[in-house]
Specification:
heterodimer, A: Ubiquitin-like (UB roll), five-stranded mixed β-sheet, two-stranded antiparallel ribbon, B: alpha+beta, Aldehyde Ferredoxin Oxidoreductase,  A, domain 1, Aldehyde Ferredoxin Oxidoreductase Protein, subunit A, domain 2, 3 domains, six-stranded mixed β-sheet, globular
Amino acid sequence: MSDFVGAGRHEPPGASPRGARGMTVKYFATIRTYTGETGRHLDDAPADLRELLTTLAGRYGTSFRRAVFSGGELSGEIIILVNGRNVRYLQGLDTPLAADDEVSIFPMVAGG
Amino acid sequence: MFGWTGTILRVDLTKGEVTREATDPQLARDYLGARGLGGHIVSTEVDPTTDALGPDNKIVFAPGPLTGTFAPAAGRFNVVTKGPLNGVLAASNSGGTFGPELKYAGYDALVIEGKAAKPVYLWIRDHEVEIRDAAAVWGHNTPDTTDLVRAETDEDAKVSCIGPAGEHLSLISNIMNEMHRAAGRTGVGAVMGAKNLKAVAVFGSGPVKVADPEGFKAAVMKARQMIQAHPVGGTGLKAYGTDVLVNILNQTGALPTRNYQDGYFPTADKTGGESLAAKQLVRPKGCFSCIISCGRVSKVDNPAYAGYGEGPEYESAWSFGADCGIDDLDAITKANFLCNEYGLDTISLGSTIACAMELFERGIITTKDTDGVDLHFGNTAAMVEMVRKAGEGEGFGVKLAQGSYRLAESYGHPEFSMTVKKQEMPAYDPRGVQGIGLNYATGNRGGCHVRGYTIAIEVLQNGAVMDPHVTEGKAGLDITFQDLTAALDSSGACLFATFGIGGAELTEMLAALTGLDYTLDEFMLIGARIWNQERLWNLKAGFTKADDTLPERLLTEPIKTGPSKGEVNHLDQMLPEYYGLRGWDEDGVPTKAKLKELTL
């Protein structure tokens, strides 16, 4: 078993040094068409993922909200990583967030 | 027979003879076609220890039963032979339109044996088969070869050919069809080159007979609707192509960087599918009967790297990108265009250049070895120049064209070759995704992702999810994917159809097409039979348990930065379970009971 089983959280990736600019949220693929930007930095980190996504849905509107939520839960067609870890292996929408976390939001993607 | 044509075409280039034989109905049922049926032909007719570039090797072009029908993405064929890169039973899967055309010409397989005394090409128009002089096309790149052969045959002919790389017997050369679609990996292009066979052109006008037309139509429409409703198969791949994977693999910490020295590339976004769509995409493109359209028709305006063609796929964007420490998408796409024209494997060549860059930075090689070129990581112009040299077979390019294992070994440092069974691994770092490491290690053709794409579950959340960092359950996951893929490859369908449908839908289409009572259990048994057929042949060729491993770097040297920092691959925790679940003994040899179960 990997040492990381159960450890859950990771350090933020190298692109956003700890403490440098607050929380980073990055958007990819079709999510960028809903946000109109590739990402943003937040000075004040929300307490958890649910609060973050609710705040972002308020900013970006219906298309973004429908992409990330399904009946108040995390949509099955969205992939969200906190510091590289899929939140489905953390605490889903209840995953706590820290000031220097990096959150990546993807639609379903694939290739090979 | 329904689904199959019932005929195998055989061409002996040494004797100049063309013969035909009936397709064995039981073999067709048990091995389907393409990779399975072609593998059966090679495994029973070619000595595993023979010289892959000698006249005794054979090369088989084979569509599957679904190929050429209106089943979704049913345009595939396989090239099966002994692969000269590493000596495995090689099967190279390609899309385009060549496979359906061979089927319409009336053939379940084209078996080419012997060696022509001088360069030739084959011209197949239904029952008419000619071995023609190729003096006028030898030496040309793949687009020019295609045009020249069509001018001499039929403007609607479908052409599979080699470029200069295959002629030079590059061990990482491809066979290209429709100019931009590749039958790649394991150096199959060199087998054609060694046989003095420049191209195969085919025009067919026959049907594919369907046993139950109404049932087949219903099964196909159901499958098409499922793919169209899927967020990936329906819209995602068409919008961004496979290169969309750059960012998610990077953000997961599993994007191999600078010859697998790291797993995170800070500027990877510049090379991803989003950037490609914004900067270079002319239009999406699909293969025969495709409703997914993952292909990219691309144009580079930058004068330094100007060009027009197809690509890059994710693997190529990675191999010439992050793996070489490069984030210039124009240069990456140019490298891809050149590989298509020379007929070179983009994964293997990009990884080989990355290996050379590491050798250069470590001082193992210098500008005296590289024809004066500074080969530091990130040197964009040098990367493109190395592609050209490999394609031309010029200077240091001669060494690059033999793959990274032979390159690194020639300087006394094979440990810097990122290969499994001497074949370059693709774009998923097994330290960040455990199961794909097991798949690489056990791959029957060496380092390869499309033999068991566990990434779909470990990273992409496609249908189910498994934590990429754990080893539990990965042996079973790998086997399921490997067997399913072996059967799918042999059916003639595209692997990407599974971004929407599964084995059940494939089985339903096959049953209605052929009139045989296929079940999902039989479909998976066929996959296991094909996997074990390949394993047995490789064992006879000299492979052992010791070859089921990963480069030492991935087992002992942790990823340095990014989300998977500190991780290594734990192959030792997965491999024994894999052997057990496969029904193999502790040396990785299939047991008699397993062979009996598989009727092998």
